[in-house]
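Troubleshooting: if your tokenizer reports a length mismatch, compare your output against this known-good record of 91 residues.
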Amino acid sequence: MTLSALYEWMIEQLLISTSGLSGKQLSSSDPKTNWTIDDKIQHAQKIAQLTKEIQTLQHKIYKEKQFNKQVKMNLVLQKLRQALDNLTRTL
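Known-good structure output:
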């Protein structure tokens, strides 16, 4: 095992523990995906950002009294969830 492989493995373990992704999703052993460490980190950051936006919007929907505003926010929430789902599938 080379030093770069060890470093990459450590980064993957940190990303798995912090982003909630599975090890299979971040594994670079798949020949179709040649993800660098930077790519994996950026991808995990995008997922974390979308997850935070979803949680914030869910809280706003819960606090909103007007039904029509809740409906509009729910449409945005569905789009964010779709984007998150697409990001987790692209790994």
